[in-house]
TrEMBL record, chain A:
Belongs to the transketolase family. Residues 3-168 form the Transketolase-like pyrimidine-binding domain. InterPro entries: PDH/Transketolase (IPR051157), THDP-binding (IPR029061), Transketo_C/PFOR_II (IPR009014), Transketolase-like_Pyr-bd (IPR005475), Transketolase_C (IPR033248). Keywords: Thiamine pyrophosphate. This is Transketolase. Its cofactor is thiamine diphosphate. It comes from the Bacteria.
Automatic annotation (TrEMBL), chain B:
Its cofactor is thiamine diphosphate. InterPro entries: THDP-binding (IPR029061), Transketolase_N (IPR005474). It holds the Pfam family Transketolase_N. Belongs to the transketolase family. Residues 85-257 form the Transketolase N-terminal domain. This is Transketolase. Keywords: Thiamine pyrophosphate. The keyword DNA damage does not apply.
Amino acid sequence: MVEMVSKPYARAFEAYATKHPDKILCLSADLTSSCEIDGFRDRHPEQFLSLGMAEQNMMSFAGGLGLAGFRPFIHTFGVFMYRRPYDQLMASIAYPRRKVRLMGFLPGVTTPGGMTHQSIEDISVMRSIPNMTILETGDATEVESICEAADSIDGPVWCRVLRGSVPRLFDTPIKVGEMRVLSEGTDVLVVTSGICTEEAMRARAAFSQAGLSIRHLHLHTIKPFDAAALLDHIGSVKHGVVTLENHVTEGGIGSLVAETMADAGMGKRLVRLGLKDTYAHGGSRAYLMRYYGLDALALVRGIEDLMGQDFGIGEADLDAARVEDVHSLVKAEGL
Amino acid sequence: MRNERSTEEVALGIRRRVFEHCIRNNGGYLSQACSAAEQLAWLYNEELNLGDPTLPMVPKPFEGVPSPSNPGYHTGAGYNGPAAPEFDRLFIAPAHYALVAYATLIEVGRMAPEGLEMFNKDGSSVEMIGAEHSPGMEVHNGTLGIGFSTAAGLAWGRKRRGERGRTWVYMSDGEVQEGQTWEAIAAAAYHKVDNLYAIMDVNRQQCDGAMSSVMDVGDIKAKIEEFGGVAVWVDAHKLDEIREAAKTPHRGKPLIILANSSPYRGMPTLQLRFPRLHYVRFKSEKERAKMNQEIARSLKVDPIDYEGAH
């Protein structure tokens, strides 16, 4: 069984921020415990700024702090950090390349909060913003290394951060600009990010038994992106590429792969899995991933579609899905 | 750097320069010179503690936007001097006042008069809506309502570092329609950002016309004070009132001077254009000629010979 790590962000942020007391500030918008920084607030109040439910001001204020030489880490749910204050994000942070670290919690369907809480198109938006770097965490080790990785960037950084109980899949920290090669098969290339990587690892094992060799890439750095490395991997498989993401298929990593292939004239098939031009609704993560086709089973069907072949893989063949009862946790998804 | 001229002279110079520019170019942000001249003249000629300019008197052309591939990028803040701990900083929050701000830089000897000839020309950094690379600008403020927030963040940071210099914002009353203004005042008050100062040009005009006909904002002073700031009314054209207002105690709170201004001050003929004063574009050659004659008389200058201009 995969190791589950409790609140890796809380420990990682405190450990990192306290090493840079003169430069790093912790900003919060009324979601302090929901973003696991309540302990930090209590122990390091001099590095903590509460800016209330006022995200437009918070973005420009953070830009001013950046101008004053600080490196603010903004903590709120991802969705609240770009939809309402998009203009401020653009004018006060992205354009002038302020070193603001935008720690967006509850990416995609990792919240039961429904449409208003689910950042399902943030990567698409961030990819189109000049000067923006985009990182996404897929396991506890990446969450533990996201602060240092983000803070190494000379400019603003958008981070999709996992919270609560997070599986440990990797044993090396994020190296900005690189991609993780999780398996080196030769039939189909699977490209995943965030929570979808764990799903793909499950599907991969099932295909291995069915005789299909899968090459699997995990992306923690979405922008900047190493197109040449991706093209090498695509060139190493016979049949084509399947992408799976906790995001709409437009503008996310599916689009990123499609653009890379089209730019290079790479004539292989591509199946893009994710939210298909739809909003999601409220529910548990496992339910939502099944309902919207973001889980291991969806990937199996996607690969079968690419191959034009039924491999006879069903739910029983996939590792038992980790089920989280959203109502059983003390602060379920922190609504 | 201290200017030898009186602030009244600088204010008159601003109006004359903006008038000449607008007549030559058949329009421009003329009314803003009327309402703002004393305020900007006072800031630059008296109140702000600024170092000598660090950028050339004749502005350089546009040199690209901030990006990792443009390492030489810099803002236009160098016209206000270096960003040293002891010096004040100024943001022009309504970047549409750029023409007036550029005229001010010229009048106080921080930019060459040729700079204004580059205004709104392709490839120039002297942009119509002040960009952060435009002379005297440090951040983009063309999207209204972000200036006070940014200044609050900068001021908080400077206070934390123990810097003596103040952070000033030139604001307009139209932008208080933006909710962000109120978020910013609340945040600055909550965090006791009292090295933050603003002077707001309350001319009651916005792009569509009189604010009372667009969306009235009510009692700005009462609202600022409810949100935790300190506000004081002055007559925008009486320098002694502005000077006194800046001394208002505001421990633990930002100070906002509300400058009650006239959008035709110094150019009474502009009243004929009410309620469309935001950007005055002459409707006919006849109107242009009439404005040229009458405003020149008001400003005690010769009418502008704009034959050959466009």
